[in-house]
Amino acid sequence: MIDFAKQLLLKRTANIRVIVTARWKEEMQQQIQAQIDRADAQLQQLEAALNRQIMEIQRQSLQPMPPQVQQEVDNLRLQANAQRAEILEQKNQLLQQLNQVQVIELEQEVYQGQLDSFFPIGIGENLIATMNVEIVLRDGTVQDIRTGFQQPQLFNT
Fold first, then answer.
1. Are the C-beta atoms of 147 and 27 separated by less than 8 Å?
2. Among 22, 47, 49, 137, which residue's Cβ finds the most Cβ atoms within 10 Å?
3. pLDDT tens digit string along 27-77?
4. What is the structure's pLDDT at 62?
5. CA-CA distance, 92 to 36, in Å (whole number)?
6. What does pTM read for this prediction?
7. What is the DSSP string of the chain?
8. Which residue from 1, 24, 128, 93 is spatially nearest to 147, judged by alpha carbons?
9. Residue 140 region, left (φ>0) first, then alpha (ψ -120 to 50), else beta?
10. Other Cβ atoms within 10 Å of 28 Cβ, number
């Protein structure tokens, strides 16, 4: 029980690290591959939507197309190209991540993300050391909780 006259309950960010296992690699590869598949589906949807829009514009306009209608079609293509480039960049990043996961060695620790945690702090305790916390997981199970480790200094003193 926290004695609020002498202690506070504070919030901190905990770093999550995982120990690479065959199971973790498989799960990460599946997650990344699913994201790649979604990017491919987005590209197909983009192409289909663009083609539908252009066909509709062409159907409704006179032949040959007046310059303002051709400009509208060109603008649609430019917008689609920008979206396509963005999706392809995301897909490229995912492919790089997939490659990194495939070549990472088993039993190595890798950074997975962060989550918030709460902790009590009392008079005389080192706030800076207590703020630093890391949770180490192996296949989703907590293997270690590290506190008080030194983070790199940000300022030269």
1. no
2. 137
3. 999 999 999 999 999 999 999 999 999 888 888 877 777 888 888 889 999
4. 74
5. 9
6. 0.74
7. ---TTTEEEEEEEEEEEEE--HHHHHHHHHHHHHHHHHHHHHHHHHHHHHHHHHHHHHHHS-SSPPHHHHHHHHHHHHHHHHHHHHHHHHHHHHHHHHHHHHHPPTT-EEEEEEEEEEEEEETTS-HHHHH-EEEEEETTEEEEEEESPPPPPSS--
8. 128
9. left
10. 20
Structural tokens at position 77: 């293509």
Letter for the amino acid at 57?
A: I
CB-CB contact of 146 with 130 (8 Å):
no
Distance CA 90, CA 95 (A): 9
Phi/psi of residue 9, each to 5°?
A: -105, 115
Q: Strand 109-122 to strand 133-138: parallel, antiparallel, or no bridges (unpaired)?
A: unpaired
Please list, in sequence order, all residues whose beta carbon lies within 8 angstroms of the beta carbon of residue 105, skipping any fewer than 6 positions away: 20
Q: Single out the residue of 34, 21, 23 nearest to residue 104, CA to CA.
A: 21
